[in-house]
DNA sequence: GTGAAAGCGCTAACAG
DNA sequence: CTGTTAGCGCTTTCAC
């Protein structure tokens, strides 16, 4: 009888092995293996017979045995800090879509936001001898970077723009992003500018770029209001109050995330503060809802999905032995100028 | 020299095997294996010596060999339709967190929203002989359900509330959710009610519940405005126009997702339609931003993260051989009554 | 508490 | 194009 979905076992009995298929097809085990893995290496008629026998027996290859013998793994490990961050979830979906249809399977591991455990997480997947790894984020601990380099497998980092990737990197320039917004603020004619959000890691470069963009218009960044750690709407609401208290004549704020910026807009509406008349607000990320906030939110668009998809494609190419011309790809960041800065 | 992160290889040479560790530790290979897998079965002093040898050699167990020999896999496969849906991404994060710290690893597979390929996707992971599987969603095709049942491994379904799970299910009652909102609409005194959103699968039960909730107050559901497929803010904006055109005296709309509902609110603000004065609006899902829309959105809170976490815990319990008292767990859905229905 | 031998299921290497 | 042999690295089984 033909099982539509076999598990490599018939009933509770012993698993179906190549040997069983071989017997039914009247060939040797290695021919079964070849018919399934390298169809071209087998005569068409033989292949047909093997496939019939596979269907008949419900055979499913045992990847443990196959990888053990061949020395090849078809596992790609994806390291994610959190899927609660929609940018990362979207990137991962891009990776998933890029890998779909290939012979590779994705294993997931969580790095968390702390770099302390980074190396432990990486170590925990090594028993699966991954063919390649992708980090949704950059690898921070130098110890981990060195160790990964020594593994000798393709490594893809994402989201950052370190000049010295472990191997390959698909990211975007935080500096350029900040500069774009600084220039936009300058063009809008704002005079007293604040930044609010993360201030460390790659965000530092964003702030540098922001300063430089402002500088082209003779402006200074008058206040950096740090909001590290998790940032939700409520943080944004508070931030608006805090900033207007600390810098009363502030007329434009660049927030490190759309969520913070949206919180600030909500707070402004609640307090009857005119946006952008009294103070302009901009965010970062271009989340789905940002065009629909009122006033609509000026922000920087980052192509999360495309980043993941590109990272996946590049990694697959490398795994296929193809040469990669550019080991570092920086996706452009686009300014979405909307009403919240439109004076 | 001690490698902090080994890959089971020293330089480009041959992999480090148990045998190598055994030689260094002055024991037999099986003792190394036991020291690592069942520390209690080995004298403490021996264990210490083995662990030192492991560190010294950079040994990393080969999971392919170990699973092949033992017949046990420590892979759990997670099937997701899309990580772009924040509810699913959040659920998956719950699963990830629940499994973290256990000896299991997660493999990802994408079912997509079509049930056509469901069985192919499931088949594609069987070579890894997963110890258990989790579906972020219910399995729709009967063929797949039967096949999964025959696999004889723990199967977790999520989000739905089928009376006949393949094995275990952590979900929520769509019917109750709908009923809650129907009752809320009745209590608010709305007279002409519409529903807009998905109309098939488990959503059908939500509509049934909604009707029954309304019926308690002598109300009928006067319009069902289907929006199947992907639903974004723009769809919600259009939907408001379409519904007010089709049912001009409509004074309350229940949307199948918060995104649709938020779109409708934005559209209402743009058209100067008073919410909830002219028409009340409610959503489903309680996404992060819903308390911050203006007016804040009445919606149904679904515990996506907790659902995933619970699903993960239950599956692990089952894999540990513990008995599960309730194979089906329905998480309560909570009404979040906010301004958009507050007359 | 430890060890010797065997074999999990597959495919590389070599042979024809 | 197909087959024979051997062995990937580990852990089960049985023995001490």
Give a structural overview:
2 copies of one chain form a homodimer. Chain A folds into 3 domains: 18-61, 434 Repressor (Amino-terminal Domain) (Orthogonal Bundle); 70-173 and 305-331, 3-Layer(aba) Sandwich (Rossmann fold); 174-302 and 335-341, 3-Layer(aba) Sandwich (Rossmann fold). In chain A, the strands form 3 sheets. In chain A, strands 2-1-3-4-5-11 form a 6-stranded parallel β-sheet, with helices on both faces. In chain A, strands 7-6-8-9 form a 4-stranded parallel β-sheet, sandwiched between helices. A two-stranded antiparallel sheet of chain A has the order 10-12. The first copy, chain A, is built from 12 helices and 12 strands. In chain A, helix 1 (18-25) crosses helix 3 (44-57) and helix 2 crosses helix 3 (44-57). Chain A has helices at 18-25, 29-37, 44-57, 63-70, 86-99, 118-125, 142-151, 174-188, 202-215, 233-246, 258-270, 304-319, and strands spanning 75-80, 105-110, 132-136, 155-158, 168-172, 193-197, 221-226, 252-255, 280-282, 299-301, 328-331, 334-336. Chain A is elongated, with a radius of gyration of 26 Å. Chain A binds a DNA duplex (16 and 16 nucleotides) through residues 15, 17-19, 27-31, 33-34, 37, 41-43, 46, 61-62, 64-71.
Percentage of residues assigned to helices of chain A: 40-55%
Annotated CATH topology of the largest domain in chain A: Rossmann fold
Query: How is the largest sheet of chain A built, in terms of strand order?
Result: 2-1-3-4-5-11
Structural class by sheet pairing and helices of chain A: alpha/beta
Tally of distinct domains of chain A: 3
